[in-house]
């Protein structure tokens, strides 16, 4: 006798802490999967009921009362389809667990506690949870489904134990954040598990932006031969069905729909769009405002913002000074017109003169230096924040990772803002993303991409007056920040010793600036902030 079971991958975008809204998402998705896809089972991501990561919300007792109520609501509302959903649980002794529930016929028929708790990179699960030790295998229409949560699939033991307990199929609930090559790592890891246990695996991933994290979705189902048989799209809510057929003693996953995945700059650009859109909308801002300087960073930031939110929700302000080149004014105005955003120019000359007059006695006898340059940036920052306060739109900061790394930015100046989309984007990638965006439609003026970068804070200024060439700078940053190489190891790779030591000194002493900067979207495997936590006060040195 042949038995067929349809499992739907419920790739949804929950909001951390909005349990009632998340439950509504879950119920609606389950009902849609049953009605439109004739699903027997729907599997949601890790901790869907609370959203991920809830961080120290997990330390609040009230959260668990809401979660308990949510589970009851799902049990009462979801009929004729099994719902596998992730959530946190706290027992009577105060221990907390990262859970998955198998809800069938109006009841939690089985539950699973995550065994492997990640405590690296952006993850702090050992701070909150106690690991589980038991397998969870549930039989449904003659097929036995083993349930695992996220990190469990990256380790062999939970998988082998699930197989030994009789599993025919592994269901894996995930909240796996985006980085440039993470999708390839996931597939390679699941392929290793499939090769080891010889069972098909369904990998369901969360989608959406949460503060500095982006979850790219990209859920997939892998056959027992290691091939991806079904692939959900990335960066979008989606319900994708996976069909299993059981005949005699064998369970076979059928080929299904396979969405095309993004690659290279296209993947990063989609992550930036999603990160900006969800940060702005989930936090209730009516739109964004930014300083559009005629330079590459603000040009790319505005492009991302418009693509994420729509031109009607983006406002751009040019704030020229007497060092601002005419081509910068022209290019900023041209891009604003091309993208259809509200644009205005507010010269800062009179404001700068007023500050200079007020400070004349304090600065008497002192030569002009970085102070005057920073003053220009801080006037611009003050204007943007005033406009934000008045109109409610959030300021987008425009600094890139290269600048953030070495402190090539001004506190309370160009660093002001509620969100910093390019915070983890090296300058060399900024250029590639700008070029990519222009392949989609006319957007960023070509000479913004080709002219030498400059902060335009003094006559004839160029970034390379103060910094190495960006190709060199980004390489040094990668080796020191991402790979933790010593200065000597970097020098031995062929880099100039003086430049290496200078860049590393700048990185080390700029931690105080980074600690005060706006959150930004994590793109690389080693972002400043959650990934790399260094003390501000430190005399440690390897040079």
Mean pLDDT: 92
Largest sheet properties: 7 strands, mixed
Number of strands: 19
Give the helix/strand class: alpha/beta
Global morphology: elongated
The gyration radius over C-alpha positions equals 26 Å
User: Which stretches are low in confidence, meaning pLDDT under 50 for 5 or more residues running?
Assistant: none
Termini gap: 71 Å
Strand order of the largest sheet: 5-4-3-2-1-14-15
- Our estimate of the beta-strand percent is 15-25%
Number of helices: 17
Classify the helix fraction into a percent range: 25-40%
Overall description:
This protein has 543 residues and is α/β, with parallel strands linked by helices. The chain is 39% helix and 19% strand. It is built from 17 helices and 19 strands. It has helices at 19-37, 61-77, 125-128, 156-164, 182-197, 264-282, 296-309, 326-339, 349-363, 370-391, 401-406, 427-440, 446-450, 470-482, 487-492, 497-509, 511-515, and strands at 2-11, 41-43, 82-90, 96-104, 107-113, 137-140, 143-149, 169-174, 201-205, 207-210, 213-216, 220-222, 228-231, 238-247, 250-253, 288-291, 314-318, 342-345, 394-395. The strands form 4 sheets. A 7-stranded mixed beta sheet has the order 5-4-3-2-1-14-15, with helices on one face. The longest helix has 22 residues, at 370-391. It is elongated, with a radius of gyration of 26 Å.
Indicate the topology.
Elements: E1 2-11, H1 19-37, E2 41-43, H2 61-77, E3 82-90, E4 96-104, E5 107-113, H3 125-128, E6 137-140, E7 143-149, H4 156-164, E8 169-174, H5 182-197, E9 201-205, E10 207-210, E11 213-216, E12 220-222, E13 228-231, E14 238-247, E15 250-253, H6 264-282, E16 288-291, H7 296-309, E17 314-318, H8 326-339, E18 342-345, H9 349-363, H10 370-391, E19 394-395, H11 401-406, H12 427-440, H13 446-450, H14 470-482, H15 487-492, H16 497-509, H17 511-515
Parallel strand pairs: 1-2, 2-3, 7-8, 8-9, 16-17, 16-19, 17-18
Antiparallel strand pairs: 1-14, 3-4, 4-5, 6-7, 9-12, 10-11, 12-13, 14-15
Helix pairs in contact: 1-2, 6-7, 6-12, 7-12, 9-10, 14-16
